[in-house]
Specification:
Layout (H helix, E strand, L loop, with lengths): L5 E5 L5 E2 L15 E6 L28 E2 L4 H7 L3 E2 L3 E6 L5 H12 L2 E5 L4 H10 L7 E5 L3 H11 L3 E5 L16 H18 L3 E6 L11 H5 L2 E7 L6 E8 L7 E7 L2 E4 L18 E8 L2 E13 L7 E4 L3 H14 L7 E7 L11 H13 L7 E3 L2 E2 L5 E2 L4 H9 L5 E5 L11 E5 L2 H10 L2
Parallel strand pairs: 6-10, 6-11, 7-8, 7-9, 9-10, 17-18, 19-22, 22-23
Antiparallel strand pairs: 1-2, 1-3, 4-5, 11-12, 12-13, 13-14, 15-16, 16-18, 20-21
Helix pairs in contact: 4-5, 7-8, 8-10
The protein binds thymidine-5'-diphosphate (TYD) and magnesium ion.
């Protein structure tokens, strides 16, 4: 069998092929495949390699000072309580979303920070800092794109934090591929990871999300770093949401909410109702519930539309809610509450661009559909919480006190929930407890 001792690699996506080809099969780019490395045979002289001494966990002393608080609560919480010493963090997002602004605010929070930019000059950063009314005393800046120089500077300056803006502009003299290619980005990130681990200095790298929705180099970066944060717009473009999608040192359920103002990103500390507009004037087909994102509760509005099927099978479409679960709920409504939806198309929408991943909003989905079908609005100021089971029973939801605590700040005076759910008494709030969907439907259809 012939030995492969040459590989050809695409400089854009990093795919490898045994033969040269004009077009990369993986990313479809032309003229990017070139001969990359030779001689893949394993080295034979393994006899002289000395064995590693394993580490015994009982000998490791964890130091308490490993987390550094930034002082911006929304960021600290998403990180799991602050920056971990020696961690490598990727801050991704669309161009123009506010990554550099957030990075500068983090730098200001930390103080002794080295800001490395391959995109902007010192005066541009200064202009931004002036806009943020930042105190620049601890901030050091280098405009640099060469990774070896960047690392040498980080090790020389020993800042409390290094920020690299952006990874797409950095190159390594070891790699011959183009700036911004997957191979370059991987090589540079790997070197930064080693630097962070060896020096204990946390490093934030900023990465642009490309048109295809990747932080360039099909998600390769996400595997290399400790923590991945994305900054994105909410669906109405009012707020910026900082979301943790990977975190080796904390949970990924938390989100941070900001508003972009003339003086930088402002924290929204009480964002319970950012995803809905007005819950006081209900229309038929809308139901209000509360979802948890990490430790935060958010009010959410579920909208349903039921329209007569004009041809063929009835349609079921959903945005922000799992379609299989929607179909299950529709089946339960038809079978257990005897509401015949078999010749109605059902469309479901979760407003504000939230994606619901939990079952606590099942009952709200169910009542929104029935309300749309009956063309009857649900009471104003009514909060609906409960999971729906296959036999139509309403089940308890988790963290109910937290959810209700948030909701009670917002003028809700009726809560409909599961029979067995234990709820503390809240003044001026009527708690209606139901055991199955038929009962819940009777309540919403009975009111005038
Ligand atoms: P920027 O942080 O440069 O985005 P990124 O690094 O993600 O590309 O800033 C994005 C936008 O924010 C830019 O259009 C200007 C605006 N902006 C403000 O509205 N207020 C401010 O205080 C700052 C610094 C920027
Ligand atoms: Mg920027």
């Amino acid at each position: 069998m012939a030995k492969i001792n040459t590989i050809h690699e695409c400089s854009k996506c990093g795919a490898q092929f045994s033969k040269w080809q004009g077009r990369c099969n993986e990313c479809g780019s032309w003229g990017t495949v070139s001969q990359e490395a030779t001689n893949l045979e394993p080295k034979k002289d393994t006899v002289n390699i000395s064995a590693e001494k394993p580490i015994n966990f009982t000998e490791i002393n964890l130091q308490e000072k490993t987390r550094i608080k930034i002082g911006i609560d929304e960021v600290d919480r998403v990180l799991g309580g602050g920056l971990v010493a020696g961690s490598l963090i990727l801050l991704g997002g669309d161009p123009g979303i506010g990554k550099s602004t957030l990075a500068l605010q983090i730098a200001q929070g930390i103080g002794n920070t080295l800001y490395i930019s391959g995109e902007e000059s010192a005066s541009q950063i200064k202009m931004r800092a002036d806009r943020l009314k930042s105190n620049l005393t601890g901030l050091k800046f280098i405009p640099q794109t060469n990774i070896e120089k960047i690392i040498a500077t980080i090790l020389d300056q020993k800042p409390d934090l290094a920020i690299i803006d952006s990874i797409q502009t950095i190159h390594s003299s070891d790699s011959s591929t183009g700036i911004g290619s997957a191979a370059q980005i991987t090589a540079c990130t790997t070197q930064l990871m080693e630097t962070a681990k060896a020096s204990g200095i946390p490093i934030i790298i900023i990465g642009h999300v490309t048109k295809e929705g990747f932080v360039a180099g099909p998600k390769t970066l996400e595997h290399l770093v400790d923590t991945v944060l994305y900054l994105e717009n909410d669906s109405r473009d009012f707020y910026k949401i900082l979301r943790g999608v990977k975190n080796r040192f904390g949970s990924t359920g938390e989100i941070g909410v900001f508003e972009m103002t003339e003086v930088g990103l402002k924290e929204i500390t009480n964002p319970t109702n950012i995803f809905i507009e007005d819950h006081n004037s209900p229309a038929s087909g809308t139901a209000i519930s509360i979802v948890m994102e990490g430790s935060r509760a958010f009010l959410t509005e579920i909208q349903a539309l039921a329209s007569k099927t004009s041809f063929g099978y009835p349609q079921r479409k959903s945005t922000g809610f799992d379609l299989n679960r929607l179909q299950m709920i529709i089946a339960v409504i038809s079978k257990m509450a005897k509401v015949n939806l078999s010749n109605h198309d059902i469309y479901l929408n979760v407003t504000g661009g939230l994606k619901i991943k939990e079952t606590a909003t099942d009952l709200a989905v169910c009542l929104a559909i029935v309300s749309a079908y009956l063309e009857k609005a649900i009471y104003p100021n009514m909060l609906i919480l409960g999971e729906v089971g296959l036999s139509g029973e309403i089940r308890n939801v988790s963290q109910v006190d937290r959810r209700i605590k948030e909701a009670s700040k917002l003028n809700f005076n009726r809560i409909i929930t599961a029979k067995n759910q234990h709820i503390k008494n809240i003044p001026n709030v009527e708690i209606i407890q139901v055991s199955n969907i038929a009962e819940a439907i009777r309540i919403i259809s009975g009111h005038q």
